[in-house]
Amino acid sequence: MTGKIDAILSDDVDCFLFGVRTVLRSVAVKNSSYAEFVDIYSSDILDQAGFSREALIFIALLRGGDYDTGLPGCGLTTAANLRTLGFGDTLKRNLNSTLNHFLDEWREMLRKELSMNFSQKLSSPNKQAALNISNSDKLDCLTTQLWNNHLELQTAARSCEIYFVWGSQARYPQKV
């Protein structure tokens, strides 16, 4: 990121996945003389707690969010515990390699960890979640778009239409 924006005003802290460093969130307070307050969320706190951008993207890929269901059978606790094993860092580091070959190996490592719990980071193996890992083009799209620091609006909009059914090509500029 180039650091040209100080903060984003949003009700959705998913902005951190896209490299935002500070999110301002408006909070309405009932029965108060003040109309509303603003909460400030900083990614520095997340970094200090071990939730880097790579870790957050990895958790979002597994857990899902606004536009994707994630990995069925994989809850937030499992995703957060797996992030400590560096799956997100490995994914980011290898984005510029032969992506399809790398993703096949990465998915297999993730399947093994979920099904066997070699690291003992999970409370128990999660064979169901391991079985749900597919060789999906959606993962390719999400990882590339989330980590691309030179994101082109037309490319992002086209990807959103294909994978998230957001509309038609004629409406791209208004949708993004």
Tell me what the structure shows.
- The protein is 47% helix and 9% strand.
- By secondary structure, the protein is mainly alpha-helical.
- It has two domains: 8-48, no CATH class; 53-175, no CATH class.
- It has a three-stranded mixed sheet with strand order 1-2-3.
- Strand 2 (22-28) and strand 3 form a beta hairpin.
- The longest helix has 18 residues, at 99-116.
- The relative contact order is 0.10.
- Residues 171-176 have low confidence and may be disordered.
Write the layout of secondary structure elements.
Layout: E1 8-9, E2 22-28, E3 36-42, H1 43-48, H2 53-63, H3 76-83, H4 87-93, H5 99-116, H6 127-132, H7 137-147, H8 153-164, H9 172-175
Parallel strand pairs: 1-2
Antiparallel strand pairs: 2-3
Helix pairs in contact: 2-3, 2-4
Q: What is the helix tally? A: 9
Walk across the major sheet and give the strand order: 1-2-3
Mean of the pLDDT scores?
A: 75
Strand content: 5-15%
